[in-house]
Design a protein that fits this description.
With 548 residues, the protein is α/β, with parallel strands linked by helices. It has helices spanning 2-14, 70-88, 120-135, 201-204, 208-222, 239-242, 265-274, 289-301, 314-320, 334-338, 342-360, 378-390, 401-404, 410-420, 436-448, 457-468, and strands spanning 19-35, 38-56, 59-65, 104-107, 142-160, 165-182, 187-196, 308-312, 366-371, 395-399, 452-455, 499-508, 513-518, 537-538, 544-545. It folds into three domains: 2-222, PmbA/TldD fold (2-Layer Sandwich), CATH 3.30.2290; 239-420, Rossmann fold; 436-518, Formyltetrahydrofolate synthetase, domain 3 (Roll). Strand 12 (499-508) and strand 13 form a beta hairpin.
Amino acid sequence: MQQMMQDVIQAALDRGADFADLRITSGSATAVAVEDGRADKISAAQSRGAGLRVLVGGAWGFAPTNRPDAEELMRCVDDAVGLARAASSHVTDAGMVAEVEPVVGETGAQPRISPTSIPLDERVAAAVQLEAAARADHPGLIANTIAHYADGSGETFLANSFGTFLHYTATGTTIGVSVVASDGQTRQRASERVANRVGFELVEETDLEQMGREAAGRAVSLLSAERAPAGTFDVIIDPKICGLLVHEAFGHNSEADAVWAGNSILADKIALKCADYVVTEAGFGADCGAEKFLNIKCRVGNTKPSAVVIVATVKAMKLHGGAFEFKPGRKPPMEQIAKENVAAARAGCANLAKHIENMGKMGLPVVVAINIFPTDTPAEIAAVKEEALKAGARAAVETYVHGKGGAGGAELAQAVVDVCDQGNDFHFLYPLEASIKEKIETIATEIYGADGVEYSPLAESKIRQFTKQGYDKLPICMAKTHLSLSHDPDLKGRPTGFTVPVRDVKPSLGAGFLYPLCGEMRTMPGLPTRPAAVDVDLGEDGNIVGLF
């Protein structure tokens, strides 16, 4: 291809062109739609073409063709040069091209499995499987199902008279499903879709059964949704884009004891397009936010963390080491916090060690960031750093961001970059194929350090119900206190010999997980008596008021 294109360009120069470039493209596309069990909409298309551009006497000439072989391209040379010559006598502002260094190379990702290597009947079968899964549950409530599959691939060759020759390839694959549920009075629609600039591996790596069932389950669950009362809140702020008035770079999502704290999957994907390193919060400890972030959010978003930063403080280690007692909502015992207690700080690091160990269970390296307070002493800081490294942290770094701004976190940033460059062996804690109880018990024993799990009769009944309905393959989002590794907020340090009580298991089918309620955990958000959102409103001039 390169030699043929160079011969065509040389022919243009020999005929008097001052500059010439040639582009040759080809592509193919396939689309499949399966609706209500019928695979009757299948299309395929191919395209190929070329375009030659020449500059003669300050005028441009263009010649296209859809048959880019050597003979046809030589005809294009005659046409393009002839057109440019004819136009050159009428040019008042001569065209010119700045000479640049030639570039030779290839770009574009190569798919692991090219869609064109997969027989058409296999691509149709993927859409059929997805659509059938969407109709498998909820008899009498599914009114319409449409699954669609599409792929496209192409390549472009570009050469010019300066010596540039580039070869660009592109591949894209999409598969998704749309489900309409109806109870006779209300109709609701839900959809699932994955798409990427990859090949057929996207389909092979997607659980089509789960995708179809999730879309159907969400459509059915929406049938019981209630409209928000009119006039309650006039202003809606999108947390994925705007943040919840706290102005992180890409927003904040929710609390980690009941769900996971941090931003959305969308926010992570936007950030990954904008920055070389994305720092995203997983909220609370490695037993709450991080476990859910890794086993739910990363699984759904198909992202792989490079490293984990565990934020620790000397006073937190002293609390877990028994130096003082503290309960949320009460005034901290500042005299005891300020009193040096190296032994308590060291003892409390058993809690930190468990968090480091938890991340290691999923193959991730840890950097411990020690936020320094004026009450911390050099001996206490040294003890925490020593215990963190002993527990397996790749680095333990003091941070002074609150007092020194960005400069106070430079050492931490460098440590994180260094650890990210070392690679990791990230893997999920449990497979989705495990039973509901197996997933709950894996989290309780491996992450919390419990001896086992005790289920209430209600929880037992719910687990049987969800298993029968096909929701047993959903991930688990444990709702428990963030004040202890256990379910009991009063158990500090690294508690052992306890059993986690699960009193209920509830579904969040829209979000795509089951959440067991542990101990006395409640799902109400931690809001004051009068949340600030109540005072956010629209003024008479249409501007938002009440944003602090």
